[in-house]
Write a structure and sequence with these properties.
Chain lengths: 155, 369
């Protein structure tokens, strides 16, 4: 019985440590990134076991039509149309695979209110290939995001 | 023993906690806590060599179509086919009424490389153009009998390459290879009759709301081969309500955005191809001229409405006036084309006239992200 418990404990320890290493590897996605158009900055965070990205900066934060901070006015869900774009979570539900890829997630385009399936691939530590697609990956577009230096918190 | 049981329970608790954390509600798109966003104002790239490139699109521009299934219909009009003489005799000028010209239009444009520094799109196109003559048994002019018997078909492959040079400048290339004639899709004409069109432009995108480019093209938009300058000008107003989508002289439209899922356009498009007729060695009344091509070009002045049906499926509906620019016939031995341009004096075999009907066109489209 003593041996059995030791084996169980050993297996659990191996599983937990393996999972922690995989999680650490996946956490390389965490940071602030700039899409190619340079009109926004997106902060990717880990919530639970998944990764999410929210808009933290907009090149043009004011809506020329309303003269107020931009909101998600193109969202197909009318209830969401008054939500501020700054702070808006556009990347959702990404999970790390062990191939420098985060999959199973979606990306939202506030310009047209569409949500696309998305795969994130890290080509180097500071570069992401973000591929949004419709159904199959071939019907899609890749945008390249660059990592920004993390801001130091103001006191 | 107690310690071992405690250890197992502890590990199970950790596992359960991780599972519970994994269930955190992340559906909210608003931030859960107030954050000082000013800290993100001035951030540099970690990789100092990182470059920004001019995007291919501007704000507010209509979505690119990946797959299109459409139907085109022109109303009643008259064709006056010119007379001409062969060794078999003289074929008199004849005017016939076409009740409608209509057909399916299938197109696909798939991005094969889609990166910030390079976009390469490859496309295919297949058009069926059917001529429904009023009183077809009365047709005697070979051009009219050919159209009645065989209709016209057009298919082609094309590629568009967008190469940004830096944050503002870009190059744009378009190439296409088209096979147009009175062939059937299951028995296409010889590849040596393929027509090639090319355009190369250099341009700038000074703001997110404007891009322009200038260049040169080898084109069949006017029906016969021509080399002409081209100008691209895409613009969107700051409110995104108004804009232009222009690739002159091929097309020019003013855009009004009702909302991002409902767009209205007013403008024109020039459609032109050179269609080879009687080109498969078949015995025809025009066998003295077994190398004929209809230089078909029409201007379509139109009002166009595009709207999202659901998700990435969009409807496009257009109605307007089809103005015939050219329906003349040239002799092109072995498909070796010649350049007439705007000022050449080479004579046509037939100079034909068409009256101008109203037309409508519908398509269902899968649009690009």
């Amino acid at each position: 019985m003593k041996k059995l418990v030791s084996v169980v404990l050993l297996l659990l320890a191996i599983t937990v440590s393996g999972s922690l290493i995989a999680q650490d590897d996946g956490d390389r996605l965490v940071g602030v990134w700039e899409p190619s158009h340079g009109k926004a900055k997106v902060k990717i965070e880990k919530i639970g076991t998944k990764y999410y990205g929210k808009i933290v900066w907009l090149k043009e934060p004011i809506d020329a039509e309303t003269n107020k901070p931009k909101v998600d006015k193109n969202n197909p869900d009318e209830k969401m149309r008054s939500t501020p774009l700054r702070g808006y979570r556009i990347l959702k539900d990404f999970q790390y695979t062990d191939k420098n890829e985060w999959t199973e997630g979606t990306i939202y385009d506030p310009e047209n209110g569409n949500t696309y399936s998305c795969i994130i691939k890290m080509t180097d530590e500071n570069t992401l290939d973000i591929r949004g697609f419709i159904g199959v990956s071939v019907l899609g577009r890749t945008d390249i995001w660059k990592r920004l230096k993390m801001p130091s918190k103001k006191k | 023993m107690f310690r071992q049981k405690l250890g197992i329970m502890l590990l199970m608790s950790v596992g359960f906690c991780q599972f519970a954390i994994g269930q955190t509600d992340t559906t909210s798109t608003q931030t859960e806590e107030e954050e000082d966003y000013s800290m993100y104002d001035n951030l540099d790239f970690v990789d100092e060599a990182a470059k920004r490139f001019a995007p291919a699109k501007i704000k507010g521009i209509s979505p690119a179509k990946l797959i299109t299934v459409g139907y085109d219909w022109q109303g009643k009009y008259d064709i006056t086919a010119a007379g001409y003489t062969t060794s078999e005799g003289t074929f008199a000028e004849q005017t016939a009424t076409v009740n409608s010209t209509q057909g399916l239009r299938l197109e696909a444009n798939i991005p094969v490389i889609s990166k910030n520094s390079l976009i390469v799109q490859v496309g295919a196109r297949l058009w069926d153009i059917n001529y429904d003559f009023d009183n077809p048994t009365s047709l005697t002019n070979p051009l009219l009998t050919t159209l009645h018997n065989n209709d016209l078909a057009s298919m082609g492959l094309n590629s568009t390459i967008f190469k940004p040079l830096n944050e503002e400048s870009f190059l744009l290339f378009q190439v296409s290879a088209d096979m147009n004639g009175d062939y059937q899709f299951d028995d296409p004409q010889n590849f040596r009759y393929t027509k090639y069109s090319v355009a190369a432009l250099w341009g700038k995108r000074p703001t997110d709301y404007k891009q322009w480019a200038v260049g040169l093209s080898r084109t069949y938009r006017g029906g016969d081969l021509n080399y002409i300058p081209v100008v691209l000008f895409n613009w969107t107003s700051p409110t995104k309500k108004w804009g232009t989508e222009i690739l002159f002289p091929a097309r020019a439209h003013v855009r009004y955005t009702v909302n991002p899922r409902n767009l209205l356009f007013f403008g024109y498009e020039a459609e032109g191809y050179s269609f080879r007729i009687g080109n498969q060695g078949q015995a025809r009344p025009d066998q003295d001229f077994d190398d004929l091509e209809i230089r078909r070009s029409e201007l379509r002045f139109r009002l166009m409405y595009e709207r999202q049906i659901k998700g990435f499926i969009w409807l496009s509906a257009q109605a307007g006036y089809r103005y015939n620019y050219s329906f003349n016939v040239d002799q092109i031995p072995d498909g070796e084309d010649f350049y007439r341009g705007f000022f050449g004096d080479q004579e046509f075999i037939q100079e034909n006239e068409l009256t101008n009907p109203l037309y409508v066109s519908f398509s269902i489209n899968l649009v690009s992200p």
